Structure formats: structure tokens, C-alpha cells
Amino acid sequence: PGKGAFAGKHIVITAGPTREAIDPVRYLSNHSSGKMGYALATQALRAGAQVTLVTGPTQLTPPKGAKLVAVESAEEMLAAVEEAVSADDIFIACAAVADYRLARVAEQKIKKQDGATQLELVRTPDILSTIAHRAKPPVCVGFAAETQDVARYAADKLKRKKLTLIAANDVSDKSIGFNSDDNAMTLFWHDADGELQRRDLGRAPKAQIADAILTQLHEL
Ligand code: PMT
Questions:
Q1: Model confidence pTM above 0.90
Q2: How many angstroms separate the alpha carbon of residue 142 from the centre of ligand 1?
Q3: Ligand 1 pocket member 127 (CB < 6 A)
Q4: Which residue, 14, 114, 156, 208, is most buried by CB atoms nearer than 10 A?
């Protein structure tokens, strides 16, 4: 978007993976690098927004000017977002949040034993849904990482999670999505008549994809 497009707006962005502890030395996580979320933060700052970047563990240098809140687990990420975002803001959920955590985190390192073992997993909170279902929600933008039926699942998430816009990527293609420098996305939203609209963003560096997402959001 243009330079001052988001002047005076506070945009809260989640980025990167979460880590769910198994014991003091092990965790469950995923391949998110944080690149997509950090690119959104950079472009939002360029467009004049005040940016809070709630980030899971990444190797990236945070963009200058963003307020950084570093977290590890899904529950910590939810608490940080709850604290940062209010009704007049925009919330963009780009993090790859773990859907499960350990039912019990072992206090001591788990010793190996003969044969198979099992970990009991329970659901983590859905950060985006929690914020979008507030009595006075901010404008919410979601991502959808799918390996099949990308359009159908994304359109379903747009509705179910009560979003203004959703950006879907096909993460079965290793050259885009998780941990790559490029991405390709399809944006979905509802127009004023409630009709589902879509726009395909072809493969491009994440900075360019981030800019296109924010431009679409600004139009909406
Ligand atoms: O970090 P990179 O390496 O650059 O990779 C970018 C990316 C592939 C991680 C990014 O483009 C992306 O797709 N992010 C969303 C990943 C994801 O978890 O998608 P999902 O379809 O499982 O979740 C749907 C939406 O709900 C997402 O906006 C997600 O942030 C949110 N969510 C999901 C689960 C949860 N417990 N809380 C959430 O807020």
C-alpha cells in the first residue's frame, strides 16, 4: 500500500512457529521461519502503521520500529496477543501455532526405554478464533496453510473464524510457504453483498506478497 496508508493504525502480527515443551530439553514445533510474518511487519511499518510483532522463536532480525514480544508456546502467544490488541486495531495471524501441546510437561528429561512410547497431546487455544470472536473484535486477517483442497478449506476458515481476509498457501510445495524466501498465495474475502471473492498472488518474494496482502486489506 501507499506510504501513509495505515498511518495512525496499530497492527498486531503473529509470526514464526510456537514450541510446545515435552521435557526440559525437547519440544514439538514446525518449520515456520517467521519470514512471512516479519515481511508483513516490515511492509506495515512502511505503510505508516504502529506494529506489534508477537513472535515465536526465529533466527531473524526484527524490523526496526516494531514493538517485539517474544514468546515460545501457543498459550504464551495468546496471552501476548490478548494484551496487545484492541477493537480499533488490525490483527494479522501469520504464526504457525502448534495445534497440540503435551498434556503434562515432564519435569525431568524423559529417559529412553525399550519399545514404543506415547505422548498424550491436548489442544492448544486457537488464537485467531479467540480474538475474532470477542464482543468487539479488531479487523482480523488469517492465514491458511493447507496441503490439499486449499480454496475450500480457506473459504471455510474465512467464515468460521469470522475474518475480513484470509491468505491461503499450498504448503505441499516446498519451494514456497514454510521457510522459503518466496511464497504464492490466494486471498479470499466477502464483498459487500456477501459474495466470496478471490485474488491469486503468483510466486514472488515474501516482501512483495506481504505488500499485496496489505494493499488488499487497505481496499477492504
Ligand atoms: O514462517 P515462514 O517460514 O515464512 O512460513 C510462512 C507460513 C507458511 C507459516 C505462513 O504463510 C502461514 O501459512 N501461516 C499460517 C500457518 C498455520 O498455522 O495455518 P493454519 O491453517 O493451521 O491456521 C489457520 C489460521 O489460524 C492461521 O492464521 C493461524 O495463525 C491461526 N491459528 C491456528 C492455530 C492456533 N492454535 N491459533 C491460531 O491463531
A1: yes
A2: 8
A3: yes
A4: 14
